[in-house]
Amino acid sequence: MSSEQERAGSMSGGPQHAASAGSGLAGARMPRPDYRDDGSAGREYRAESGSAAATGFTMLAATLMIISGLWSFFVGLTAIIKNQFFVTLPNYTFEIDISSWGWIHLAVGGLVFVAGVCLILGQLWARVVGVVLALISAVANFLFIPYYPVWSLIVIAIDVFIIWALMTAGQREPA
Protein backbone atom coordinates (compact mmCIF):
# COMPACT_ATOMS: atom_id res chain seq x y z
CA MET A 1 0.00 0.00 0.00
CA SER A 2 1.42 3.41 -0.88
CA SER A 3 1.48 6.31 1.52
CA GLU A 4 -1.22 8.03 -0.52
CA GLN A 5 -3.50 5.01 -0.11
CA GLU A 6 -2.73 4.84 3.63
CA ARG A 7 -3.71 8.49 4.06
CA ALA A 8 -6.94 7.95 2.16
CA GLY A 9 -7.70 4.81 4.21
CA SER A 10 -7.11 6.56 7.53
CA MET A 11 -9.36 9.47 6.56
CA SER A 12 -12.21 7.22 5.58
CA GLY A 13 -12.00 5.12 8.69
CA GLY A 14 -9.56 2.51 7.49
CA PRO A 15 -10.27 -1.15 6.89
CA GLN A 16 -12.75 -1.37 9.76
CA HIS A 17 -14.81 1.42 8.25
CA ALA A 18 -14.93 -0.29 4.92
CA ALA A 19 -16.06 -3.56 6.52
CA SER A 20 -18.77 -1.95 8.60
CA ALA A 21 -20.02 0.35 5.86
CA GLY A 22 -21.91 -2.49 4.23
CA SER A 23 -23.66 -3.42 7.46
CA GLY A 24 -25.06 0.06 8.05
CA LEU A 25 -23.26 0.50 11.37
CA ALA A 26 -20.67 3.04 10.22
CA GLY A 27 -19.93 5.42 13.05
CA ALA A 28 -22.23 3.61 15.50
CA ARG A 29 -20.74 3.01 18.89
CA MET A 30 -21.18 -0.53 20.14
CA PRO A 31 -22.11 -0.61 23.85
CA ARG A 32 -20.02 -2.62 26.22
CA PRO A 33 -21.85 -5.70 27.49
CA ASP A 34 -21.56 -4.69 31.17
CA TYR A 35 -23.12 -1.23 30.67
CA ARG A 36 -26.63 -0.12 29.90
CA ASP A 37 -27.58 3.31 28.55
CA ASP A 38 -30.89 4.54 29.91
CA GLY A 39 -30.99 7.50 27.52
CA SER A 40 -30.62 10.24 30.13
CA ALA A 41 -28.20 12.83 28.77
CA GLY A 42 -25.91 10.20 27.28
CA ARG A 43 -24.75 8.88 30.65
CA GLU A 44 -24.18 5.17 31.03
CA TYR A 45 -24.99 3.24 34.18
CA ARG A 46 -23.45 0.05 35.41
CA ALA A 47 -26.08 -2.66 35.03
CA GLU A 48 -24.62 -5.52 37.05
CA SER A 49 -23.52 -4.22 40.41
CA GLY A 50 -23.96 -1.20 42.66
CA SER A 51 -21.23 0.90 44.11
CA ALA A 52 -19.05 -0.20 46.97
CA ALA A 53 -20.80 2.31 49.24
CA ALA A 54 -24.23 0.89 48.40
CA THR A 55 -23.04 -2.64 49.11
CA GLY A 56 -21.40 -1.49 52.33
CA PHE A 57 -24.54 0.29 53.52
CA THR A 58 -26.62 -2.80 52.73
CA MET A 59 -24.27 -5.00 54.76
CA LEU A 60 -24.26 -2.44 57.59
CA ALA A 61 -28.06 -2.33 57.53
CA ALA A 62 -28.19 -6.15 57.61
CA THR A 63 -25.79 -6.25 60.55
CA LEU A 64 -27.80 -3.60 62.39
CA MET A 65 -30.97 -5.59 61.69
CA ILE A 66 -29.40 -8.65 63.30
CA ILE A 67 -28.26 -6.64 66.34
CA SER A 68 -31.56 -4.74 66.62
CA GLY A 69 -33.51 -7.98 66.29
CA LEU A 70 -31.52 -9.54 69.12
CA TRP A 71 -31.97 -6.44 71.27
CA SER A 72 -35.72 -6.40 70.71
CA PHE A 73 -35.90 -10.14 71.39
CA PHE A 74 -34.16 -9.70 74.75
CA VAL A 75 -36.25 -6.64 75.66
CA GLY A 76 -39.30 -8.78 74.93
CA LEU A 77 -37.99 -11.58 77.14
CA THR A 78 -37.32 -9.09 79.92
CA ALA A 79 -40.85 -7.72 79.65
CA ILE A 80 -42.35 -11.22 79.74
CA ILE A 81 -40.20 -12.66 82.53
CA LYS A 82 -39.78 -9.60 84.77
CA ASN A 83 -42.41 -7.06 83.86
CA GLN A 84 -41.71 -4.95 86.96
CA PHE A 85 -38.47 -3.86 85.24
CA PHE A 86 -40.40 -1.31 83.18
CA VAL A 87 -42.13 1.69 84.70
CA THR A 88 -45.75 2.09 83.69
CA LEU A 89 -47.27 5.53 83.43
CA PRO A 90 -50.90 6.23 84.26
CA ASN A 91 -53.20 7.69 81.63
CA TYR A 92 -51.02 6.84 78.63
CA THR A 93 -52.99 6.96 75.39
CA PHE A 94 -51.76 3.60 74.10
CA GLU A 95 -52.05 1.62 77.31
CA ILE A 96 -50.92 -1.92 76.66
CA ASP A 97 -49.87 -4.44 79.28
CA ILE A 98 -46.10 -4.88 79.66
CA SER A 99 -46.37 -8.61 78.97
CA SER A 100 -48.14 -7.81 75.70
CA TRP A 101 -45.34 -5.41 74.79
CA GLY A 102 -42.94 -8.23 75.59
CA TRP A 103 -44.60 -10.56 73.10
CA ILE A 104 -44.70 -7.80 70.47
CA HIS A 105 -40.98 -7.08 70.88
CA LEU A 106 -40.16 -10.78 70.97
CA ALA A 107 -41.97 -11.46 67.67
CA VAL A 108 -40.75 -8.34 65.85
CA GLY A 109 -37.18 -8.91 67.09
CA GLY A 110 -37.14 -12.49 65.86
CA LEU A 111 -38.47 -11.49 62.44
CA VAL A 112 -35.98 -8.61 62.10
CA PHE A 113 -33.14 -10.97 63.04
CA VAL A 114 -34.15 -13.55 60.41
CA ALA A 115 -34.58 -10.85 57.73
CA GLY A 116 -31.11 -9.46 58.55
CA VAL A 117 -29.52 -12.90 58.20
CA CYS A 118 -31.32 -13.46 54.88
CA LEU A 119 -30.17 -10.04 53.66
CA ILE A 120 -26.56 -10.96 54.37
CA LEU A 121 -27.14 -14.20 52.45
CA GLY A 122 -28.20 -12.11 49.44
CA GLN A 123 -31.95 -12.75 49.36
CA LEU A 124 -33.69 -9.99 47.37
CA TRP A 125 -37.00 -10.38 49.23
CA ALA A 126 -35.17 -9.66 52.50
CA ARG A 127 -34.61 -6.05 51.39
CA VAL A 128 -38.35 -5.39 51.06
CA VAL A 129 -39.21 -7.37 54.19
CA GLY A 130 -36.40 -5.56 56.05
CA VAL A 131 -37.86 -2.16 55.19
CA VAL A 132 -41.35 -3.23 56.31
CA LEU A 133 -40.06 -4.81 59.53
CA ALA A 134 -37.87 -1.78 60.35
CA LEU A 135 -40.95 0.40 59.88
CA ILE A 136 -42.99 -1.84 62.18
CA SER A 137 -40.16 -1.85 64.73
CA ALA A 138 -39.92 1.95 64.64
CA VAL A 139 -43.67 2.34 65.19
CA ALA A 140 -43.67 -0.22 68.01
CA ASN A 141 -40.77 1.54 69.71
CA PHE A 142 -42.48 4.90 69.25
CA LEU A 143 -45.47 3.53 71.14
CA PHE A 144 -43.08 2.04 73.73
CA ILE A 145 -41.36 5.40 74.49
CA PRO A 146 -43.17 6.00 77.84
CA TYR A 147 -41.93 2.66 79.19
CA TYR A 148 -38.28 2.83 78.08
CA PRO A 149 -37.63 6.25 76.46
CA VAL A 150 -33.89 6.40 75.70
CA TRP A 151 -33.80 2.83 74.47
CA SER A 152 -36.81 3.36 72.23
CA LEU A 153 -35.34 6.51 70.66
CA ILE A 154 -32.05 4.72 69.92
CA VAL A 155 -33.86 1.81 68.27
CA ILE A 156 -36.00 4.24 66.24
CA ALA A 157 -32.85 5.98 64.98
CA ILE A 158 -31.33 2.63 64.00
CA ASP A 159 -34.56 1.63 62.24
CA VAL A 160 -34.62 4.89 60.27
CA PHE A 161 -31.03 4.28 59.14
CA ILE A 162 -31.90 0.71 58.14
CA ILE A 163 -34.85 1.94 56.06
CA TRP A 164 -32.68 4.59 54.38
CA ALA A 165 -29.85 2.16 53.63
CA LEU A 166 -32.12 -0.51 52.20
CA MET A 167 -34.14 1.95 50.10
CA THR A 168 -31.16 3.73 48.56
CA ALA A 169 -28.82 0.78 48.02
CA GLY A 170 -30.70 -0.49 44.97
CA GLN A 171 -30.19 2.69 42.97
CA ARG A 172 -27.56 2.61 40.27
CA GLU A 173 -24.57 4.88 40.51
CA PRO A 174 -23.27 6.84 37.50
CA ALA A 175 -20.22 5.22 35.89
Give your account of this protein's structure:
With 175 residues, this protein is mostly helical. It has helices at residues 3-11, 14-21, 52-81, 98-120, 125-143, 149-168, and strands spanning 35-37, 44-46. The chain is 62% helix and 3% strand. Helix 3 (52-81) packs antiparallel against helix 4 (98-120) and helix 3 runs antiparallel to helix 6 (149-168). The chain contains six helices and two strands; from the N terminus they run H-H-E-E-H-H-H-H. It has two domains: 3-46, no CATH class; 52-168.
Briefly characterize the structure.
With 175 residues, the chain is mostly helical. The chain has helices at 3-11, 14-21, 52-81, 98-120, 125-143, 149-168, and strands at residues 35-37, 44-46.
Task: Give keywords.
175 residues, mainly alpha, 6 helices, elongated, 3% strand, two-stranded antiparallel sheet
Q: Which percent bin holds the helix content?
A: 55-70%
Report the count of strand segments.
Answer: 2
Number of domains: 2
Q: What is the strand content?
A: under 5%
Separation, N- and C-terminal Cα atoms: 42 Å
Order of helices and strands: HHEEHHHH
Main sheet specs = 2 strands, antiparallel
List the helices and strands and how they pair.
Elements (H helix, E strand, L loop, with lengths): L2 H9 L2 H8 L13 E3 L6 E3 L5 H30 L16 H23 L4 H19 L5 H20 L7
Antiparallel strand pairs: 1-2
Helix pairs in contact: 3-4, 3-6, 4-5, 5-6
